[in-house]
Amino acid sequence: MSSTEENPNTHPPGGDLRTVDEPGKDPAPGTEKAGTDKTSTGKASGAEDPAVAEAAARKRAKAETIGRYTAMFLMPLIMVGMMVGGYLAAMHSPTPNNMPVVVAGAPAAAAEFAQALEPADPDAVDVRTVATAEEAQRLVVDRDVAGAVVLGEGNASLYTAGAAGASQAGAVTGLLAPQIMAQGYELTAEDLAPLPESDKSGLGAMFMTTALIMAGYLPFSLTLSNSPELLRFRRAVPLLAGWAALAAGLVWAVTGPVLGVVQGPAWAVLGICWLGVFAVGAVQLLLTRLLGPLAIIAAMFLLMVLGVPASNMGMSVYTMPDLYAFLHSFLPTPALGEALRSVMYFDGAGTGPYLLVLAVGAALALLLTLGFDANKRRKNPNAAPPVVAVQSLHGGPRPKTRFWRYAALLFFPFAMVAMMISFMLGAMFEPTPHDMPVAVVGATADAGQEAVDRLDSGMQGLFELSAVDSEQEARTLVGDRTVTAALVLPSEQNSSALLLTNEAGSSSAQQLVSTLFGQVAASENMELETENVAPLPGSDSAGTVALYMAMGWMMAGFLIIVVGANAAPASRPLRKLLPIVAAWSLFMSAVLYLIAGPMVGAIDGHFWALFGTGAVAIFAAAMVATVFERLIGMLSILPVVAILMFLGVPSSGGALSIYMQPEAFRVLHDILPMPAAVEATRSILYFGGDVVAGALLNFAIWGAVSLGVVAVIDRFKPVGGNETVPHGGAPAEPDAEPLAQPAEQKELVTL
Fold first, then answer.
1. pLDDT in tens, 4-57
2. pLDDT digits (tens, 9 = 90+) for 540-549
3. In this structure, are residues 373 and 234 in contact, taking their beta carbons and an 8 Å threshold?
4. What CA–CA distance (Å, rounded) separates 727 from 746?
5. Cα 316–320–321 angle (5° rounding)?
6. In three state form, how does the secondary structure of 381-442 look?
7. How far apart are the two ends of the chain, measured CA to CA in Å?
8. 3-state secondary structure (DSSP) of residue 151
């Protein structure tokens, strides 16, 4: 029976397929009776000429092949393009933008300071005055403003809340402190809500939020393709409630008892985690009704591409374009993140509005889903059930029992969330320097060694200090990133010490050594000057462009394999796959450069070097993904994402210096493709391509070894060239209530 409204009982006995007209009605267009066709050979119209049928079948097959290959290329292009473009556009050059601050003090002095502050940079701040210091401090703690200045007699206090975002506190301090001192005030800075020792980086809430958002949108997107019978409303809602409880418990267990990051009452954290996953899952259920398989694209765009920058978690929303401050008020990602931050760092203050966003969003999504289903049933009560596009997640035959099929569906998002929260947060939640290499230059060799011994005893294990003979040697070591910094001690020629840093090599390391050695100099009453030998340009002031480019290369590599294996299985044999991946690598490397360069403005020049390096990196990542796809099918996403992203990002040094993470990630820095991609991009942009050859060797080894493994696997487990899902896939479970789908998602299914 086809998905059109044919009734098999209307066919005459004997299997002769004829068009059956209702009495008194004209035949539908295209269904005229055979007797009226003068060229008919006397056969009924249902007995189609074999040549015509064969031609129609070929035409349908060709159209289907084109559609499958289009999906193979289009889906990864959209995913990679919007992720890299979205993140770069929002965060490549954070600059204060309408950052809310308040000024308190004597009315005349406060008004004068506020008036002087705005003309200095009109777009940077949104300043107003308040009557008392207490009110100013309350606004900071309540996170209604990013900072406050309280003026006194010749002195000024600058108040921030580090727990509201370490980057925000740094941005408002960098903005206001120079203005305070320029007006002759003696500055005192105070953090009214410092981050706890268990989460010095303030990344706990951010990574928890990202993991929970992933837990919300992944399951239903996968279920639609593999087991759509579970999306029936009466099944989906209780399943979502149970899954939300499981995901919340997992995230809390890893971040609480295991890592010790979570602060605040366990019941409050668990409740917010549950509500966040449930709300996102409810929205995703609605999106699957509206968009079918394209719901995953919509979810990534709303929750990740827009939601993560607007969350105010990793980077202050007041250092981005105005759009993100607007999105911060209603998207689920910011609501979940801010609610977690409230209970973890602010004793629950200000949680209510964020919980309301999640609760109202969940309720509206479920009500709209019910209405959509009811409307579709009314219009087409006999609609065919949705098709099963992904027969199995492990790459083999479809499991014979529902238990194993549903177990795989549960395992996939559970493992993704567990790896993300464990690897990413486990690496970066406690950034403490370990054996960070720093050179020391003394007036003499003996003086330099004495300084090394003295400093080492006071900072045991933090730095790997080594004495060098001259300032020139120290500059060379800092410039080629052999050491992260160099301290040149006072001499007869220079009465002050000089700290040489390399911001382009690692902005996080540069900030850390500047702070710590500034404290050392102050404790020894030593004047210290700082020189940045490789400053970052304004287009990459956060130092993250190399990381986002490398992420785009890795994603482009593994997505073409994972999506292609399911959308166009005929592409899997190596004789077809290799030219496809080669062309794709060249194409996507150019696309990513166009996004980062002309479109966003994060990169200027260096096209050929980045284009060539990116193409090799994409090809290598694709070969790595192919190994696992051959072995475990769609579940290959788990090990591939673990190797290339969840382990690769922390070990890359792109977001946080590798000397500020556990030792294991420093080892992985010299092995994995992602660190090689970050270092190659950084080298091309800022250091004349000095380490690109090593990165290309890394890609070549990963690509060649992976290709060899694939060839061996194919020898013992041949890949057929005609592995296609029957047109329209397979039907859903027979006991499933048909799910309403948009008309454009329906396909002709013949049983």
1. 333 333 333 333 333 333 333 444 444 444 444 444 444 444 456 888 888 888
2. 988 899 999 9
3. no
4. 12
5. 145
6. CCCCCCEECCCCCCCCCCCCCHHHHHHHHHHHHHHHHHHHHHHHHHHHCCCCCCCEEEEEEC
7. 5
8. strand
